[in-house]
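Attaching the record inline, Q. Sequence:
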Amino acid sequence: MPIFKPKIIKIETMKRFALFIALLFLTNLLDAQTNSSIVLLKTINGEYNGKSKNGLANGKGTAKGEDTYTGLFKDGLPNGKGTYVYKNGNTYKGYWKNGLKHGKGKLEYTLNGKSSKLTGYWKEGEYAGKTDPDITYRVTGSSGIMNSTVKKIENNNIYKDNVIIVKIMSAMTSFIPADVKINNSSGRVIREGKRLVISQYFCPMNCEVSYSIVTGLNQRKLCRFSVEITELGRYEVTLSND
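Structure, as predicted:
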């Protein structure tokens, strides 16, 4: 019997080697499928190296065509953070959405032999300026207030129209100070329970809320908060000294 042991070992070794070759072939096949993934943006539709899903570039990768893009893809298009190098050498570093520059970024370009930079925000492929166009409000002043929040309410079952809801909090409970005042550039202010609601406003809309509270030393402290609304919608302003 011992005379057959070397043959058994040899057969097992051959099986393992065959399995290794099969795995290597499968890996190369998967790599080839990845490299043949489709990039839907024409200017970079050429050679692709990166992750894919359902035959489309998805995840991190590099696509080279007339131009070159390295970064994140989704469904065959640049989507997320990435670097785009144009054939003339200009470079954009920033965020993309559905194949268009969208979000914060920096464009480095040469014009008439002079190097320049353009930083800021893009929206749907167009430069929108230094401030984020998706932020539709900005706080213009605050004093005497410990905590403040402004948020846009996308879905609200109570208010269907454009309104600004002002909530003043103390001990995690809404209340309306006796001396509260709202100076608003447009709209109508009404009281609804323990909140103030501004309706029928138009933009840009500037609003200042002022009131006083009693401190621990039994002294009154004046509180002021001002905000500018630049796009119609439903907003909630919450002010608190807790």
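The chain has two domains: 36-129, 137-240. DSSP finds one helix and 18 strands in the chain.

More tomorrow.
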